[in-house]
Write a structure and sequence with these properties.
about 600 residues; 5-stranded mixed β-sheet; 22 helices; 15 strands; binds adenosine-5'-diphosphate; binds zinc ion
């Protein structure tokens, strides 16, 4: 952090300090010294000394009487009492006496003391504190009240384009509409189309969310304003809100433009109803919501925000008209990792026989930031070894270094785990495809997802209909058990990877018995009612303990039948299972069509 040079400042501050010292001395030290030599006596002593004529000078003040003895050697003081003829007695005693003249402080001085001085003191303390708090360079001075504190990036400053962000094709496709809009907001305005005001970039750290936001600004050639949610939380109450207000004021002036809020979860966490809530965060969040509601959808300001914990966000933020569009920015797959390595390899001098595919394969589970780090570590290693060129071995070596750093975070799968997950996912897909003779609708992947699932296969298209037949539900249960069934066949052992499948399959089977009337035993008797349809759909049982036992038995039977069916399907197609699992293991992500092509070969 650089100190801001300002030659005028020290002078002002030193004078303030000197002034403070003088005033303190006057207010505290001088009276104390004076008091030290004055002996306090009771009023009776004062009266008798007066009556005896043993008194010299007398000064009557509003709250005390200060007097001396005849020889003016000792000073005394006593409290003031109601004594109407004191003056007469003092006169008789021949004392020199006077009453205090209440000093009228000069209006200028009192104005200085009550107004100017405190303000100077506050500014001075504030400056010291803000210097301590200053983290992000001179622009983030906390006491820069109402002043510009959002960092402005223009194209020339960063110049990041979509090309620099590798392997996030879906996210880029999603965001390119916004680029189009920023290019020509008028076109959208004319037709009456509203761009979303806010877009939430959701994904693990280091996957390029910040880069993507910058790239949108870079592609559209518009200013880029950014701030980080965590910057707010450390500040005084009210500062965050004023920063948000300021940011939007600037943005509206510079529209069309991009406003990027990193780590939005830091301010946008679900609000708790307790009284110990973080006032600062709430004020900031409320200000953000107010700003978002305040501007028209078409004024050319697009707010991008990044988070890696979308589920913790306050629902108020994700309501329509706010951050109502969500763009997943997931960990890169094999191809993505290869591309990211290539992008970063452009910046270093590399031997030409480097096999990027091999390196990418070795770094499965790594994020973009980690891959960038791997390339950099490799370059450092080359320098350490006095080489002018980075070799494949450097890259391989640095994977170990970087991976050792993040393996603890379990972001990465071991090779064996990758095999298991590949079989598991193909198991789901194969059971689904064989039952309905159609392709899986979504991609099949073994790249860990934000949701925590190791991979996913969403079944064959069910046409999104509202009614499901008994057979369809049974098929769905079979598909859910297909993952585990494939593991059993291929490895003759089972893993914890199927926990979510088990939960879903059980739920379905249970609903068949208790709610859909799909078992012969219970016919059309409602055994369970949904009590809380909008909040998770809790159910409550409405039957005897004996019936409950019967239900449980029936649920187990239903799931077991489907599980056996899945095993049968996979056993019959064992060769395809192996082939597809190997294919997925190698490619990490495959589409439904690719799956069908291999299956039907
Ligand atoms: P996030 O905002 O998701 O945490 P960043 O955008 O800050 O991640 O990425 C950090 C760094 O990692 C970037 O500066 C870049 O060097 C590298 N990086 C991350 N993702 C990618 C990517 N998809 N392509 C190229 N580089 C990437
Ligand atoms: Zn599964």
């Amino acid at each position: 952090m650089k100190e801001i040079k300002n030659p005028k400042r020290p002078l002002v501050y030193y004078s303030v300090i000197v002034l403070l010292v003088i005033i303190a001395f006057n207010l505290i030290a001088v009276p104390a010294m004076a008091n030290a030599q004055v002996k306090e006596v009771d009023y009776g002593t004062f009266m008798s000394m007066t009556d005896k004529g043993d008194i010299g000078k007398v000064q009557v003040e509003s709250n005390q009487i200060i007097f001396t003895d005849k020889a003016n050697q000792n000073f005394y003081k006593t409290g003031v009492m109601y004594d109407p003829d004191l003056v007469a007695r003092l006169h008789d005693a021949g004392a020199t006496f006077s009453s205090e003249i209440v000093e009228q402080t000069s209006p200028l001085l009192s104005f200085f003391l009550t107004w100017i001085l405190p303000i100077l003191v506050f500014v001075w303390i504030g400056d010291i504190m803000s210097k301590k708090m200053m983290k992000g360079g001179p622009n983030s001075l906390a006491f820069n009240m109402g002043g510009s504190s959002a960092k402005v990036y223009v194209k020339s400053a960063d110049g990041i384009k979509f090309d620099d962000v590798a392997g996030e094709e879906e996210a880029k496709e999603n965001l390119s509409e916004i680029v189009e809009y920023l290019h020509d907001p008028e076109r959208y305005r004319e037709i009456g189309a509203n761009m979303p005001k806010g877009v939430l970039l959701v994904g693990p750290p280091g996957t390029g969310k910040t880069m993507l936001a910058k790239a949108v600004a870079g592609e559209a050639n518009v200013p880029f304003f950014s701030m980080s949610g965590s910057e707010f939380v450390e500040m005084f109450v009210g500062m965050g809100a004023s920063k948000v207000r300021d940011l939007f004021k600037q943005a509206k002036e510079k529209a069309p433009c991009i406003v990027f809020i990193d780590e939005i979860d830091a301010i946008g966490k679900k609000r708790q109803g307790n009284m110990y809530g973080n006032d600062e965060r709430e004020q900031t969040l409320n200000q953000l919501l107010t700003e978002m509601d305040g501007f028209e959808g078409n004024n050319g300001v697009i707010i991008l925000a990044a988070t890696n914990q979308p589920e913790s966000l306050d629902p108020a933020l994700t309501r329509p008209g706010r951050f109502d569009r969500r763009v997943p920015v997931e960990l890169p797959d094999l191809k993505g990792r290869e591309d990211i390595l290539k992008v970063h390899a452009r910046k270093i001098r590399l031997a030409d026989n480097v096999d990027f595919n091999k390196i990418a394969r070795m770094a499965s589970g790594a994020s973009g930031a980690e891959l960038a780090n791997i390339v950099n570590e490799a370059a450092l290693r080359a320098v350490r070894n006095n080489r002018k060129i980075v070799e494949e071995a450097d890259l391989e070596e640095s994977i170990e270094i970087v991976i050792a750093g993040y393996q603890k975070k379990n972001a990465i799968l071991t090779d064996h785990e990758k095999h298991i997950v590949a079989y598991h996912e193909i198991g789901h897909a194969l059971v689904a495809a064989k039952q309905t003779n159609s392709a899986p609708v979504q991609k099949i992947t073994i790249v860990p997802r934000t949701s925590g699932a190791l991979g996913y296969t969403m079944q064959v298209d069910e046409g999104n209909h509202y009614l499901m037949t008994r057979e369809e539900i049974e098929n769905k249960i079979a598909t859910l058990t297909g993952g585990r069934a494939a593991e059993e066949l291929a490895f003759n052992s089972v893993t914890t990877g199927a926990s979510n499948d088990i939960e879903q399959a059980t739920k379905l089977a249970r609903a068949m018995v208790t709610r859909y009337g799909m078992s012969d035993e219970f016919d059309m008797v409602a055994l369970e009612t949904v009590t809380n349809q909008y909040l998770g759909g809790d159910t409550s049982l409405a039957c005897s303990a004996d019936t409950q036992r019967e239900i449980d038995r029936k649920v187990v039977e239903l799931v077991k039948t489907q599980h056996d069916k899945a095993i049968k399907i996979l056993t019959e197609n064992r060769a395809k299972l192996d082939e597809l699992a190997k294919y997925l293991y190698e490619k990490e992500t495959i589409t439904g069509e690719e799956f069908m092509k291999v299956l039907e070969d």
